[in-house]
Amino acid sequence: MYDQWDGSERRTMSLRALAEQRLASNPPPYGGVLPEEALHELLVHQIELEMQNEVLRQSEMAL
Asked: Model pTM?
């Protein structure tokens, strides 16, 4: 589906530009999804990312 991100691109591009580039080359399969369903999926994904970010912060502080 999507390529794994190893972080090396971050040194040369902003995350926003990288995300835009990846979206343009690999559009998500949301053809017939209702806007409410897409919004729900995005909100759930946002919460997942926030939780992952917290784990990363805790790991960074432990190091």
From this structure: 0.51
